Amino acid sequence: MKIRKAVIPAAGFGTRFLPATKAQPKEMLSVVDKPLIQYSVEEAVQSGIESIAVITSRGKALMEDHFDGSPELEQFLEGKGKLDFLEEVRRISNLAEFCFIRQKKALGLGHAILMGEDYVGQEPFAALLPDDIFDCSPPCLKQLIDVYTEFKGTVIVLGRVNEEGTKKYGIVKPKQISEKVFQIEDMAEKPGPEKAFSDMGIFGRYVFHPDIFAAIKRTAPDQKGEIQITDAIKLLLETQPVYGYLFEGKRYDCGDKLGFIEATVELALKRPEFSQALQEFLKSLSIK
């Protein structure tokens, strides 16, 4: 079955970016000239996704406006002859079919994904976390979809992490199937280096079998009262295989301030209109 739908959880407070996120969603912070969430949406569309449910919360209406039509702005741009900007604005509003679902209380990533159950129905679907920007060819999500198509089971993206990373990410116990594909035997949420199964962490891309919803409903909240998607996937392992894919490309952790800065600089360097001037500026810096 073709993967047609995606869920993008975007209901968090973004406290690590305060005060910038006091009055605007973290997902609308701009990396170069696009908001974070647009990178995830474009990756989904480039991977064949046609319909996207964004899980939102109070104060997140800017995301809805961003992907909606803007007749006044379009009329202004057309009148000024700014046709390149006009084309881009119209492209954004036509990227995909959107549905915005309100999560009234932050109860963890697992709960946020569960909010998309009625929208998704009984078909496989993707989930993308907008904190992560993947610079990959083919897109990271497309790599996962290809694995799902071959193995017909839930697939999560994996990346190598250092000891500090074992405190930040879910860590898997992998059984290698091929160079990049692994069957997951166990996993733990942020276990730390002493209890980590491996150096493979779970990053923010998933392709789920619809049975994940039943697993989430069976998942007990953690000490913070949140339902972790890692715990739900671990329950799913009891009834069906789950796979991990060591993706090819570059990932930026934009949920971290330094990662956000790195993404801004490196992605700007890839843009022809910025590359040369930015390189010259960086070379001119006197770093002590």
Structural class: alpha/beta
Classify the fold: give the CATH topology. Answer: Spore Coat Polysaccharide Biosynthesis Protein SpsA, Chain A
- Mind telling me the CATH superfamily name? Spore Coat Polysaccharide Biosynthesis Protein SpsA, Chain A
Order of helices and strands: EEEHEHHHEHHEEHEEEEHHEEHH
Largest sheet: 9 strands, mixed
**Terminal Cα span:** 56 Å
The value of Rg in angstroms is 19 Å
Total of helices: 11
CATH class: Alpha Beta
Strand tally is: 13
Fraction of helical residues: 25-40%
Which percent band covers the strand fraction? 15-25%
The average pLDDT value, as a whole number, equals: 93
- The coarse silhouette is globular
Detail the poorly predicted runs.
none
The strand line-up of the biggest sheet is: 5-4-1-6-11-8-12-10-9
Per CATH, the architecture is: Alpha-Beta Complex
The total tally of domains equals: 1
Secondary structure layout plus pairing:
Elements: E1 5-9, E2 30-31, E3 34-35, H1 36-46, E4 51-56, H2 61-66, H3 71-79, H4 83-93, E5 97-102, H5 109-114, H6 117-120, E6 125-128, E7 132-135, H7 140-151, E8 155-160, E9 170-176, E10 181-189, E11 200-208, H8 212-218, H9 229-236, E12 243-246, E13 250-253, H10 257-269, H11 272-284
Parallel strand pairs: 1-4, 1-6, 4-5, 8-12
Antiparallel strand pairs: 2-3, 6-11, 7-13, 8-11, 9-10, 10-12
Helix pairs in contact: 3-4, 8-9
